Amino acid sequence: MNFQIRDAIKANVNGQTAAEFKDIVEDAIARGEEHLLPGLGVFLEKWWQQSSPSERDAFTQKLEQGFAH
């Protein structure tokens, strides 16, 4: 991913509340537009960096389940 995109996304959401992040994620998923995927990727990256090993394990297990169907 281009680092300028990553930096722009971070700057655009700096200071958002948890409720605002939830709205952003739900809106991006509901729209299903591919150009929103880099933003979700930046969110995932930030979450991953701040998550415990058990949170990461739970997340990857949910991914495994979600993509098994």
TrEMBL record:
Listed Pfam families: SSPI
Membrane spanning residue stretches: none
InterPro entries xref list: SspI
Subcellular location: Spore core
Keywords: Sporulation
Highest taxon of the lineage: Bacteria
Induction, per UniProt: Expressed only in the forespore compartment of sporulating cells.
HAMAP family named in the record: SspI
Family: Belongs to the SspI family.
Protein's UniProt name: Small, acid-soluble spore protein I
Source species of the chain: Lysinibacillus contaminans
